[in-house]
Amino acid sequence: MKIRSLLNRVAAVLLCAPVLAAADVSPVAQNTADYAVETYEAAMTDTLAELVHYKTFAREDLPLEKNPEFTGFKEALRDKAIELGLEYEDHGHVVIVALGDAEDKLGIVTHGDVQPADPSKWQKSPFELDGDSEPGKLIARGSEDDKGPIATALYAMKAIDDKGVPLKRRIELIVYLAEESDWGPLREFLKSYPIPAYNITIDANYPVVTAEKGWSEVRVTAADSPVGSDGEPYLSEFRGGYFRSQVPDEARATVANITPALEKAIRARAAQHGDVRYEFAARNDGSLAVTARGKATHSSEPQHGVNAIAFLANALAVHRWPANAAGTTARYLNDLVGTGILAEQFGDIAYKDDFMGPMTSTVTMVKAGDNALTSYLNLRRPTGKSAGRLDREIRAALAQWQRDNEIELAQVEVDLGTPYRVEDAMHVAPLLQVFRHFSGIEDAGPVAIGGSTNAKLLPHAVSFGPSMPGKAYTGHSEHEFLTVEQFRLNLQMYTAMMIEIGNL
Hints:
metalloprotease, EC 3.4.13.-, 32% helix, 11 helices, metal-binding, Alpha-Beta Plaits, four-stranded antiparallel sheet, alpha+beta, disordered N terminus, six-stranded mixed sheet
């Protein structure tokens, strides 16, 4: 036992020493990462197939604790953890899978809930892992966000355990089950739980994310009113979007009392939108249905999508619509939101930060309520402007627009999230080292993202993958996937990351 203890101490020293070398990892980290891929790549894919089967999205009619999909997901995770020789703890909205018994801890933070998916837009069920439709891709809701990373972390931990790698820190995979809908239960959990000193979320991008924009939203509600009594054209319908953190790929409007000249003008303007597919359908009541189809993506990266709502409103901008709910909404979107993503039309609200980049803006939904329509404008705000100032500027722009158009909005709501930045986390340098070593990108440095992860709730937390720099994040889209190559690379990097940071 004494000899084994001495060897373990020597190994731990060797693990830490190479961390200071440029673009290199310790031999133990390299060897264990290679072993993980050679031994567990197929099992990791099988586990992902099992996890994506569960429809773990929030439902208004059924609380999480009574939802059989979440119950089944937790049971599957528990059974897999036990099978792999790992510890499992169920804390309700949070489950923890752990390796090691050291007093100091490394938190690997992720989530097991997902956004809804529209089955009509997938080649197979979004809740069935599809590795055949597009060879080289693993397609499913949650494959990238975040069930793929969960499966990766499980087998990284298993490989480390198999090889008997000594760790100074207990590794805790913290899986939250309501990240996409409600952070309240996690905040409550963290009030009493011993939080690890080092925390890494696996819910974003590489190389290392040290700053996240604040998730924010402007909700504008327009009340309905009688229009069209004299036969004038008006919008009897305007709607679109699926959920509030997705650039919408579909929107629909209906023009009542359509005239040939107006239809021609709408079609001509729509034809200028090369990235949008339009469908026109004349109805027996003399109306025209117009459907716009764009490209869905995560609303934190609107540059990778094509916003069907924004472009549909633009196609309708050939006419000054009467100010019922649909007409008011289309006019507001055209005047203040537009088809851009930097809020440059919205009064004085646009700004940018040298590191975090510009505030982005994208309308994600237009949803009908009781005799009203509410539009949801998702902002991702960096540091550089106070919340108070931004709130005043938003409300001033809306007030001026109402005066100019002689329209009174039914309601305006503004929620501004807080940007998050880490300046001095000690594990940033070794994480960059792991990424540089396995990716071959030697000049990789810290980055900022528009996304908002649970890193905001933890001390000195940064994000590490699973999406590569320069690649569109597919989570929240209707074509979510991880490539087989990326899945394999993630397993290598997560295994090495746990060893290197687990021995700081």
